[in-house]
Fold:
Amino acid sequence: MKLRSLCVGIVVYSLTAVVHAESDSPHPVSDNDFYSTPSGAEVALGRALFFDKIISGNRNISCATCHHPLAGTGDGLALSIGEGGNGLGLARDTGSGDDAVNERIPRHSPHVFNLGAKEFSVMFHDGRLSVDDLEASGFNSPAGDHLPLGLNSVLAAQAMFPVTSSTEMAGQAGENPVANAAFEGRLAGENGVWDLLAQRLRAIPEYVVMFRDAYPEQISTADDIQFKDAANAMAAFEGAAWRSDNSRFDQYLRGDRQALTGSERKGMKLFYDEANCSSCHVGKFQTDHDFHAIAMPQIGPGTGHNSEGYDDGREDFGREAVTGDADDRFRFRTPSLRNVALTAPYGHAGAFDTLEAVVRHHLSPVKSLRNYDASQVRMPSRADFDGQDFVVMNDYWRLEQIAQRNELAPVSLDEEDFGHLMSFLHALTDNGFLDNRRNIPSSVPSGLTMAD
Structure:
């Protein structure tokens, strides 16, 4: 009788655990979670623009260089190599001679899966672009009142900014008119960054036809083309191409209880319970869209921020730089975990090269920070950069400032449970994106190469 009672108790406990995990897991993703389906003409235009170097100052880099389909919509590097680099993904270098990159981009290139969903209202690691109905443009952004009207989504608004960055796409002052305008802060208006790029698109007959087809009610002649139309098209392409909601986890949420293995279901319970992952990675896309300080290592050139007593600009204060609130120091946006196994490296500076490494960091953030293994970083070597990339990590006092801001309590998992948790995270992969070649065009209207 005692043995039977024990067995019954184990069964009841197991069922209770599964029910608890299922009750905390989100509702299935549906069409209503996304903006209306764009036309085929708009998607085709956006795809061409996304892969075309014509919208970079020196015509040598496209959006796809740092958000490539074959690199999980990122680039595989800890810190992206922007304007002036050569090659794609892990093969990309920092260029050479007068054309070499001026500096590394200070933050990791994030993935773009599901950014066409309505709930994504904040962009960039520090959230400096967000939906704001009080602004004329509908968005709070670094461009302020200069951001044009008529942007269809926050994803479209985001597409307005990489082209204005000297290190990302514009180039350095003196190299081209776009770079000069960016250096002088002339984004909008005649011969501003966005107008100069629109002029280039107006001069390409194939693009004029594509813009007319995509926006027949707005564009009838080349002169009607504005860069905000290009941004809308690129956002339409990204939203359609990288909507990812058919992982085995999605299938499970839609009622297929055989979609997840036993290990994955145990991992799901850990995710939504003891491991406390869902305190931040909550909702349909596993993000609270908020900002948290979790002792993430700071590598690379930094964003110009300095703790008291320093003036080298090597730090990155994250959300504080946007809000001005010192309590936001070292807080960064919670990323969505959809396709997380495909989107390495991880962290705002790409400091963790594997999913296992970043998950272990979450379980013990301060210990992980203090024992960080710098050998895992994936960046092309260059003598004048290499000594600068770990300035903060090699400074005990600065490291402790990051550690003291940590908000994440440590979690103890044995190796068996850790394996279950990892299994669940892999179940968030939509296998339709294991081969993403369908989203790459064979050529672009400008006639520029797509090889590097």
